[in-house]
Amino acid sequence: MPLENMKAMLSKAASEDYAVGAFNILDYNSTRAVVLAAEQVKAPVIIQTSAKTVIFWGTSVIISWIRQLTYPSSVPIALHLDHCKDLNLIKECIKSGWTSVMIDASSKPFEENLSLSREVVEIARPKDVTVEAELGAIVGVEDDIHVKEQDAHLADSEQAIKFCAEVKPDCFAPAIGTAHGVYKGEPKIAYDLLKEIAAKTAVPIALHGGTGLADEVFKKCISLGCTKVNISTQLKYAFIDGFVAYHNANNTEYNPLKVIDAQLHQLQAGIVEKIKLFGSAGKAR
Ligand SMILES: [Zn+2]
């Protein structure tokens, strides 16, 4: 199937109370793991690329894997650019075939975030590309975006309502207490804030910093309005651990294809588990 944007998949998720998993890929093998996992459990899925991954490989290389892997596929798949501050890279991805982009101007003052996010919507919407925008500051390290604990702050609900009314994003990422990377302590999720923002904006909410959250936390966030859940750090670990575990168990064998296969299976199993947890298994139209 050709790639689609996030609009239909997130509105279906909102009306049926589940969330679509958005998984950050790193290379061809990890992209294949996402597609195979989605097909295995017949789920819609979002393939995400960090800005750093796009710069590392280049848009034409990534789009060639994506097309080759997704065209024969029978499940709805979107290709989304995760946290991007660079308008030129956003434009390049849109031109190259990404069906969805995230503008992250959350480190800028509110009015500037609002106008930059609105500009991206104006560029993307005529091309049928969906836009995710962020408000507040999500703690942790994601790609080249570092937010220290003392600089993290939750989204403000009044600002969130104004932001969504004026930007009209297809997906909204308010900071609600989750963190990028690995959690150091028990995360404090602002459920009331999430509930209020989801109800008052009626925009699909993206949950960032999914790795390391307890199953009940995912379920509660989804029940309160999160329809997109990002998983990145977990895949970074599985990517490395899949290699290392196989080599440690077979350390006299130097067969790269077997190592790649072990990595693929480790990634795929983790993705399937998350898709089932988010409730999107069996939801491919
Ligand atoms: Zn994020």
Brief write-up:
Helix content is about 50%, strand content about 15%. It has about 280 residues and is of the alpha/beta class.
Question: How does this structure look, described?
Answer:
This protein is α/β, with parallel strands linked by helices and 285 residues long. The chain has one domain (7-278): TIM Barrel (Alpha-Beta Barrel), CATH 3.20.20.70. 48% of the residues lie in helices and 16% in strands. It has helices at residues 7-16, 28-40, 51-57, 59-70, 87-96, 110-124, 157-167, 191-201, 215-223, 233-249, 256-278; strands at residues 20-24, 45-49, 77-84, 100-103, 130-135, 140-142, 145-147, 171-174, 205-207, 226-231. The strands form two sheets. An eight-stranded parallel beta sheet has the order 8-5-4-3-2-1-10-9. Helix 2 (28-40) packs parallel to helix 4, helix 2 crosses helix 11 (256-278) and helix 10 packs antiparallel against helix 11 (256-278). The longest helix has 23 residues, at 256-278. The chain starts with 6 loop residues before the first helix and ends in a 7-residue tail after the last helix. The model has no long low-confidence stretch (mean pLDDT 93). The chain binds zinc ion. Zinc ion (ZN) binds at residues 83, 138, 142, 180, 208, 230. Zinc ion binds next to loops.
